[in-house]
Amino acid sequence: MSTTREDIPAVPHDGISASSLRDLIDAQLYMPYPFQRNPHEAEAAAGVEKWLRDRGLTDDPAVAEMIARTRPAQLASFNSPTVDSGILQIVANQIAYQFIFDDWAEEVGRKRPERLLPMLCESVGILRDGERPSTPLGAALADLLGQVTARCTPAQAARWAWAGREYAHGLLYEAVAQTGSARVGTGLCTSIRALTAGIEPFYPLYEAAQPVEPPPEELHHPAVRRLRRLSVDAAVWTADLFSAAKERQAGELINLALAHQRAHRCSLPRAITLAIRQINDAIHEFERLHAEIAPRLSPAGLGYLDGMIGWIRGCYDWSRTVPRYSETVTTPALP
């Protein structure tokens, strides 16, 4: 288990100059939750492969290669270790869909953000009004909506769709930020990242995974809402640590570590250390608030919070081993 030690310097000593960015992250990131994986992971991986193939989404060899390097079923297994096989399959399918959607949006949005509008409007129309899809990606989203509707209550499915619309809007904000001439500061970066994280759409599935519905007064309690925000931030910011080297090479802007590098005009290892401190603060706050609210929650409410914990720990374990972020292992920890 990785834990933080506040006496570790911002960059490693000369004695460990050969260590990588991954070593730096492992040494400083506070991670109090144990590693877990879902026993149905292999089944989910086979299901994702078939689902993508049936919808023609992996007909493009580049997309198929991206999925192989991203391992969506592994991420689902790590962040949803205790859910049943049905929920796990929806989570894995949705992760795969979002990676394809997100990568395409980044590629198009970096050049001509207006070309994103038909794609994003199609998604919003499907999620808000049940419109018929006109593209393979839209058809995949409509199928996901059907899977969620079949497993969730109407209220849970509505929350899933609302969070999905926020995610779609966030991709447009990211495209505007990428092509604009204005400086993207840390605050603006984290605001956009909160939307493009794409994690909150999964949380209604953890409601559905409980034997009974969590009471509305628990779901909407201010402390639970704050825990939701902290868990999303901690999870996606952790992924940003491991993706920073890759995204710096690609010219990406919406990444917490790269935002710190721009703000402080420092090396990438130093920027990663600053981002880690921000993540550690979020996780510490999550722990404190969880301890305060947990005695007042039902078993279903506690199970819902376990879904949030799963994303915090799961994003760490997945990010540090997935081929998508292999640059973290080969990039030295010294500037």
From TrEMBL:
Source domain of life: Bacteria
SUPFAM superfamilies per record: Terpenoid synthases
Keywords, sorted A to Z: Lyase
InterPro entries given in the database record: Amorph_synthase, Isoprenoid_synthase_dom_sf
EC number: 4.2.3.162
Enzyme class: lyase
Single Gene Ontology MF annotation: lyase activity
Keyword Lyase (UniProt): yes
Gene3D superfamilies reported in the protein's UniProt record: Farnesyl Diphosphate Synthase
Pfam families assigned: Terpene_syn_C_2
Protein name: (-)-alpha-amorphene synthase
Organism: Streptomyces bullii
Taxonomy of the source species: Bacteria, Bacillati, Actinomycetota, Actinomycetes, Kitasatosporales
